[in-house]
Amino acid sequence: MYPKSLAELIESFRKLPGVGEKTAERYALWATEMNEEVVNEFAKSLVNVKTKLHKCKICGNLSEDDVCEVCNDSSRNNKMILVVQSPKDVIAMERLEEFRGVYHVLGGLISSSKGVMPEDLSINSLIDRAKNADEVVLATNTTMDGETTAMYLNKLLQENCPDVLVTRIAHGLPSGGFLDYADEMTLAHALSGRNKM
Ligand SMILES: [Zn+2]
How far apart are the CA of 109 and the centre of ligand 1, in A? Predict the structure, then answer.
């Protein structure tokens, strides 16, 4: 029923989170009505995030350079490392403008149900970095996988870096909630009320 190119675009839009058939159709039809410049810009931005962005070689955050802006900022306290699941947590925390340390992005959570093992995550590099740190804040979310990951990391850090203070963000986040969805006050409280593990 759709011309082929329209059908393909609808299929592409359907891959976006939360986009169903109707919305995908609306977006695709929007593209047919937009002027060419806008559509080209849209397509270029989409390709750019895949070709220009990569992981910061220090922390794993998204960056256009080898080292991300946070790691490159000499005013940040690199003795305090906040450990998060993904770059979206870094974005949420940076929006707060309260945290002045640096990040470590794990690239996921340990999960028996999803088959994610510790070796699938950036854990070795965390241990290396933690050896020169004063404090490591475990800020994985409060889901079961988030808690499992925090407990695993705590054990590993205690064994390998006994002088480092390991803390966990306070349980002010709704259970099952993700760090990036928490409102800013909750996030600020979770950070300031962190506890020693
Ligand atoms: Zn970085």
Answer: 19
